[in-house]
From TrEMBL:
This is Chorismate mutase. SUPFAM superfamilies: Chorismate mutase II. The keyword Isomerase applies. PROSITE patterns: CHORISMATE_MUT_2. InterPro entries: Chorismate_II_sf, Chorismate_mutase-related, CM_bact, CM_dom_sf, CM_II_prokaryot.
Amino acid sequence: MNTTQAEAISANPPQTPAELKEYRATIDNIDAALVHLLAERFRCTQKVGQLKARLDLPPADPEREAQQVARLQALAVSSGLDPEFAKKFLRFIVDEVIRHHEAVRETPSR
């Protein structure tokens, strides 16, 4: 695409079909729900981190993490989602949770 074509498109952008707008609105709603659910999850894991610190438990729990991976992969399969994606997604979340738990543990006033 040359500069003239790009300028013409930006001056007269093509109309977005109504069906595409509907899909995008649905995606936006799902994304908002995901953010709210993740926030709730992190509020809960913060409490877990505080409890672990008080009980002098390690921030990471590899056995629990393995159980969670297996559970989420099974849920992914039953939902038609790639189980490897579910595993990577959970790993990303768990790594962040562990980072938070380590920070709580290092804070003098538990």
